[in-house]
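Progress report, Aim 2. The chain analyzed during this reporting quarter is listed below.
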Amino acid sequence: MRKKITAFMSMFLLCVFAFGQDTQKTKPQIKTEEITYHGIAGRPISRSDMQGLDQYKEYNLDGTVSTIYIVEFDKSKNKNNYNLNERYIYEKGKLCKIELIGTVTGDKYGEILFSYNEQKQLTKKIENRYEGNRLSLNQFSAYTDYFYNENDETIKRYEYDETKKDFLLVSIVTKIYDSGKN
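Predicted structure tokens for the chain:
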């Protein structure tokens, strides 16, 4: 009886060890991603038709996006150019800013700022535009406020009206959840 128990336990431990060998300890993290557009519904298109749509993304070690480049083919050099388009900045694991970079000039033309509450919920998103190094209020300037209750979330978006020189409420979205937060 003792030999049977020992044999059974040995087989059990070997099975557990064998199954454990195939499981990954950590999830693999993506480092870069390149997105290339080739056409719509199988219809080939000229690369120059889609210029500026191809992207190259770089990721941080924690799997968050770090930078996005616009990929453009340079016919004269017969190679791709990678032009910085967006830079992502994080603080304490949360996205706090996206800098928008002009792919031709290399200058920052905009930024998106994010604020969070103590529960790590997004409370405000501010979209700013720049002309040179100066903040410029224009039709692309906006901010969004996020409000949370027990079973709902309200999102209010304000956009800058150049004629009234003020931010005007343009939309209110209310999301209602069930008791399981679905």
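The longest strand covers residues 79-91. The CA atoms of residues 34 and 157 lie 32 Å apart. These observations will guide the mutagenesis work planned for the next reporting period.
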